[in-house]
């Protein structure tokens, strides 16, 4: 038996699907990675590059080597997660990542490795083993150049081109009329980049000179023969890590992101929704773990903050509604599974439904075109996510209706909320009891908003069979509550 066959057999006998990724020094051109899938016994070489040249327009004159390493780690995580298939019902993935870095002694320290492992296990449900090796390669061009054009004192925030990013930025621009903002985007998709640019330009036309847009794209070459992992639960973490690097280079110790509390905490809709059925990209515990990882790396405190944690998506959209800006939401994308042909957004996934609910509840005319309303009949059953979200709202409604101790009742059903308060209240500068009150209010507001507009967003999703099914679920839920 040859060496490759031996590895393949060991992988089949293991509790994991094993992957090795051996990176050449991460570069802005001509970078590469050897991807080994041990379960399939195959090896493939791919080009992988990061274009961080826009970071030359930074506030800090120097580009610390440890920040360049942070960018390289983010690229390695993104590449590994995208190339390795993931099925939540099959074996857990295990990555062996060999990565050249400038400071292997810092990244190999047990404290840092533990924090990084905790973050990636929590967000990706995969095991990660890093082998940080000494990088022997020229610096990337951006590490040598500095053109201090960006103004000091900017609030640096993640910029996805989504509705929360738009509504959050619009709200912050109105709340702080003297504040300037740096918007940070990344990804590997040209259509995402075009959307980020389009929404940014509209904001610029409304608030001239208040914002600057920076992007750090990650590009694959010659990777068409490898089917990409669509779940890609590491994507949000990678986005945030790169955003932290940008914020630090802009002279800031805080990175902001704008996400409604319902979407950020992302409580399970069903009893069977466990683990990575639900994304944890901007979960409060994820932000806390990223803050710890980056602080450990930089040797000084760094925070990732979500100022809209206690806001519903509808509350975030109110500033748009009050200014009559129903022309802006259609420029944004919320869909989990966008279609290739128009209409692009499906209108029936959980993200589309939360979008539609929030626009309706904030009295914004939704001019977005959705497959479920404006296209051909979807291949998938369009009522599934709606029924799940409806069941969750009715569960919450019944919990609040029968108890004079809403926090105790709420956390008995969703114990993760207690963990969030215990671990993040201090970072939110709140007493635990006050944070509990904010979270209760968040879910009470959400239930009220949903109930007010449910009939509007149900259009085109339910048939008679689905209606009866939903009614019967509600009876069961009420009896259990």
Written overview of the protein:
- Helix 7 links the parallel strand 7 (181-187) and strand 8.
- Helices cover 46% and strands 14% of the residues.
- The protein has 18 helices and ten strands.
- By secondary structure, it is an alpha/beta fold.
- It starts with a helix and ends with a helix.
- 44% of the residues are buried.
- The strands form two sheets. Strands 5-4-1-2-3-8-7-6 form an eight-stranded mixed beta sheet, with helices on both faces. A two-stranded parallel sheet has the order 9-10.
- The chain has helices at 3-13, 65-83, 104-107, 110-124, 141-144, 163-175, 190-206, 235-249, 261-265, 284-298, 313-322, 350-361, 371-374, 384-402, 406-413, 416-424, 432-457, 464-480; strands at residues 16-23, 32-37, 42-50, 92-101, 127-134, 155-158, 181-187, 211-221, 254-256, 303-305.
